[in-house]
């Protein structure tokens, strides 16, 4: 099974069909943000009290004949869910029919999938012009995630290839189930970890290089700390730009500044994005040539995750490999066997 990946304002989204209606097709199509860092599948529903602007209108759950509220003692069960950036969603837990694309291009029907019908939603989607995001597809460790609910069918495996964002961002796919990509000659493998029964996928980051220069960063800096909120490294499609611990960032920043100081035609500029390493290039034609790559050394044999020139990182108490740094890689999450398989590829040619 698979579903289209699209991009909106540096957020990657997936297209799903949901519900049963007297129409052709018998479902309604929506885009959900694709998030490996959380586990709730939810979308904004009709009748919401706190709503964000979206196109099409919120999901008309009361008109869907396959919509089933989850009851506890004959009363609807409600959920509350929060995210690291302060966003929240509150609503009714329910079951519904979802549609994806099957392997042969037809329809794959998934019945009785648990999801949240969002009624009180405080999240940034509405600030985007002509917003098409209706909710979020959690792909994390918890039982409520899209992956765990489909696990008997897909054996805990999903993969994706995020394309470079441009005026003509190509369509690629989030794929569910076994993938031939496991057998690629240049595949690398690193363990996946779960921390404090949380949703995100952690990897063991052991060091960073700029081009082929290994930076003097103590590997213990990336270890798990004794509390639930800091330490470790998450691989997360729901965070657009990667984030890195302050002391490690200082070393990386210094090395990148040294690199750019040796090149002609670069001028450091300030932006309103809150990013420290922004440079303006006098030559517009060279694009990414001569720009440095940043390599994340992960646990495993030669498990180096090489990020091309668009490596942009900022400060946090946890290290996160964001979606923008995952572009042009095939990433295969094998949740059952607790490992991440990855290799570089031109995602515009190999969706």
UniProtKB/TrEMBL annotation:
Keywords annotated in UniProt: Aspartyl protease, Glycoprotein, Hydrolase, Protease
One Gene Ontology MF term: aspartic-type endopeptidase activity
Residues in Peptidase A1 domain copies: 12-351
Entry keyword annotation includes Lyase: no
Family annotation (Pfam families): TAXi_C, TAXi_N
Organism superkingdom: Eukaryota
InterPro entries: Pepsin-like_plant (IPR034161), PEPTIDASE_A1 (IPR033121), Peptidase_aspartic_dom_sf (IPR021109), Plant_Aspart_Prot_A1 (IPR051708), TAXi_C (IPR032799), TAXi_N (IPR032861)
SUPFAM superfamilies assigned to the protein according to its UniProt record, in alphabetical order: Acid proteases
Gene Ontology annotations of biological process type: proteolysis
UniProt keyword ATP-binding, yes or no: no
CDD domains in alphabetical order: pepsin_A_like_plant
Family from the record: Belongs to the peptidase A1 family.
Name of the protein: Peptidase A1 domain-containing protein
Naturally occurring in which organism (per UniProt): Erythranthe guttata
Lineage: Eukaryota, Viridiplantae, Streptophyta, Embryophyta, Tracheophyta
């Amino acid at each position: 099974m698979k579903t289209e990946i699209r991009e909106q304002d540096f957020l990657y989204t997936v297209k799903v069909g949901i519900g049963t209606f007297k129409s052709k097709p018998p479902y309604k199509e929506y885009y959900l943000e694709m998030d490996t860092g959380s586990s709730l599948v939810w979308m904004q529903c009709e009748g919401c009290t706190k709503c964000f602007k979206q196109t099409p209108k919120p999901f008309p759950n009361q008109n869907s004949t396959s919509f089933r509220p989850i009851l506890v003692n004959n009363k609807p069960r409600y959920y509350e869910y929060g995210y690291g950036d302060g966003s929240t969603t509150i609503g009714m837990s329910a079951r519904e029919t979802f549609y994806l694309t099957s392997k042969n291009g037809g329809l794959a029907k998934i019945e009785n999938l648990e999801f949240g019908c969002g009624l009180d939603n405080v999240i940034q989607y509405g600030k985007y012009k002509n917003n098409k995001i209706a909710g979020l597809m959690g792909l994390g460790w918890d039982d409520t995630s899209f992956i765990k609910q489909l696990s008997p069918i897909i054996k805990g495996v999903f993969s994706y290839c995020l394309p470079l964002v441009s005026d003509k961002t190509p369509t690629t796919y989030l794929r569910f189930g076994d993938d031939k990509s496991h057998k690629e000659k240049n595949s690398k493998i690193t363990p996946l970890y779960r921390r404090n029964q949380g949703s995100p996928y952690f990897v063991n980051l052991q060091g960073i290089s700029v081009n082929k220069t290994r930076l003097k960063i103590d590997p213990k800096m990336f270890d798990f700390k004794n509390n639930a909120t800091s330490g470790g490294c998450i691989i997360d499609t729901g965070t657009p730009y990667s984030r890195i611990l302050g002391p490690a960032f200082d070393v990386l920043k210094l090395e990148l500044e040294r690199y750019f100081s040796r090149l002609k035609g670069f001028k450091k500029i300030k932006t309103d994005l809150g990013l420290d390493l922004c440079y303006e290039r006098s030559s517009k034609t060279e694009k990414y040539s001569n720009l440095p790559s940043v390599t994340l050394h992960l646990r495993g044999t030669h498990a180096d995750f090489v990020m091309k020139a668009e490596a942009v990182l900022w400060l946090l108490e946890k290290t996160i490999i964001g979606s923008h740094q995952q572009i042009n890689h095939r990433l295969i999450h094998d949740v059952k066997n607790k490992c991440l398989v990855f290799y570089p590829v031109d995602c515009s040619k190999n969706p």
